[in-house]
Design brief:
63% of the residues lie in helices and 10% in strands. The protein contains 20 helices and 10 strands. The strands form 2 sheets. It has a 6-stranded mixed beta sheet with strand order 6-7-8-3-9-10, with helices on both faces. The chain is elongated and about 120 Å long.
Amino acid sequence: MSNKKINKMPLGDASTKFLIKRLFRDYVSTQLVKIGLSLLAMTIVAGSTVMLARQMEPIINDIFLNQNEELLLPIALSVVVIFFVKGLATFAQSMLMQHVGLEIIARIQTQLFKKLMRTDLAYFHEESSGNLVSRFTNDANMLKGVVSNTLTSIGKDSLTAIGLVGMMFYQDWFLATIAFAAFPTAILPIAKTGRRIRKVSTNTQETLGLLTTRLDEAFQGIRHVKAYNMEDHETQRVSDTIHKVLRLNLKSARTSSILSPIMETLGGIAIAIVIVYGGNEVIQGTKDPGSFFAFITALLLAYEPIKKLSKLNASMQTGLAAAHRVYSVLDSEPTIKDAAQAKVLEISKGEVTFEQVDFNYDDQTPALNNINLIAKAGQTIALVGASGAGKTSILNLIPRFYDVNNGRITLDGQDIRDVTMSSLRQSIALVSQEIQLFDDTIRANIAYGKPNSSEEEVIVAAQNAHAHEFIQSLPDGYDTLVGPRGSRLSGGQRQRVAIARAMIKDAPILLLDEATSALDTESERHVQTALTTLMQGRTTLVIAHRLSTVIDADIIYVMDHGRIIEQGSHSELVEKGGTYAKLYALQFAEEAQAVNENIGSSEISTKR
């Protein structure tokens, strides 16, 4: 199977119509009851607005012209009631649509995370963490806007505009036709603006993802930033990205705002026509002042929702750009997944076999070439060689983080592609030099692979990992929070917690990826003791740069450029005098020199 990049999955159809249909099907359709109640409230708001416009006729005719004192209080009270009803309906509509939008965000974010947790490991190597976080935050919030704001605008603004325009045509169809004759000319610029907004919004979201990535890199690597005096460099990088976001936002604002002068001009023309034509009718006595003021009030009230509707396409395109990015993740399909007839892995011995395995991370760069390897039940197999020789690739293939291109890998004779990934990974424990602890208690981190572990199991695992003593010395013991990525623990302590986590999982296959390479001598001694306990009774594949730690391995495989060039026990390989013997002799000489230098330094210090 080819391991191609999968982060740039095509969406298939990114048209406005297609995306709107998908959003309705996937998210809006689940909220129809709340949306229906909201539309009812919007209808009340629209009706109230029309009633306010209608009230202008009796206010002008009965109060100001006819001076009917008896109608003064009833008309005033009716205005209060209309505003009260309109306020309650506006509150109900707003709360219901906010509820709809927030529930949609929660559902989108949950689906995104669930999808990503089941995506190939290669996806996370190809896609930046900042870009993924941006999908959860910026894109999801924009989708909330396109759903709640669009529905609100279509509902409240459309109903209000329709009600007011209907009233105007009822009062004077000829004057209403003249007033709105110019508005269709705005359709073309509205459509063009929407297309531009979609493109700019997509670029903005991608740049925000880049900004999140750079912030994360700077904060996580702050120790190295300061050590290399790169504060100004990182500040400049982030500043450049921030200003790129600024330029894109300004471009978006300019594009959106271009509609304002068009709509304002058209509105001014419509009102001017009404004033000239309608005012002339009032002067000539063919129309009463009250109906004229009711008409012009309706026109003024209709202008605002019509203006909002003109901006609806631009706002909607911003949200649809976010929808396109979200669906590009949700529509991606992992290449590594369970076969149609996958069975549960049955471990009887724990023998791992590589049979003529070829593997590459893309279509061009070979990582492994014709690998034949056997790790019999309970054996410890060591992989040694220079960086880039293919050692980690072998370990990555066993839990199916990647799939082989040719050949096969078996566990007790079962091809790992024919068993469920859940049962496969349940049978494997991994300890690497890059320890990932979660910002939780030590207890939770140890029990991570087995959440239902008892207190006794956690303690026994910690004792076997030689971690119990230091855990007890901490202020809160097993309830001590380890901090982000275990930052409150030393390297050796983090490593022993990770070993305890592997202990409690009690998997028959153990993978050790340079688990002691980054530790000081004292920490390494503790960790190595813990690892020795962990390896007992398990089939173990271990990568180590320090050959002294794998002398006791049953078989040592020496790798070079993706091939196995030597294999055998330590004594056999030394006796051959090949690559391994040279590596071992070189490391032995370096370690001996380091010991002599330390002894010399101690003697000088003693004499002083």
